[in-house]
Amino acid sequence: MERNWDQFLAPYEQAVSELKVKLRGIRKQYRETSQHVPVEF
User: Fold this and answer.
1) How far is CA 6 from CA 12, 21, 41, in A?
2) How far apart are CA 30 and CA 19, in angstroms?
3) What is the largest CA-CA distance in the chain?
4) Are the C-beta atoms of residues 39 and 18 closer than 8 Å to each other?
5) Given phi > 0 = left and psi -120 to 50 = alpha, else beta, which region is 34?
6) Helix H segments across 1-41?
7) Which uninterrupted H or E stretch holds 4?
């Protein structure tokens, strides 16, 4: 069974985008305090 992943994930696109924004903010805070950054994506 073959899936069209773009179509399957389309409803989650906004949520993933918002998570990326939050994770970038967390990553920036760690970098500003010269700590190890546990967030990678």
Assistant:
1) 10, 21, 19
2) 17
3) 48
4) no
5) left
6) 5-9, 13-32
7) none
What pTM, to 2 d.p., does this model score? 0.62
* Number of Cβ within a 10 Å radius of residue 14: 9
pLDDT digits (tens, 9 = 90+) for 1-41: 567 888 888 899 999 899 999 999 999 998 899 988 887 77
Residue 39 near residue 26, CB atoms below 8 Å:
yes
| Residue 27 CB partners (closer than 8 Å, separation 6+) | 37, 39
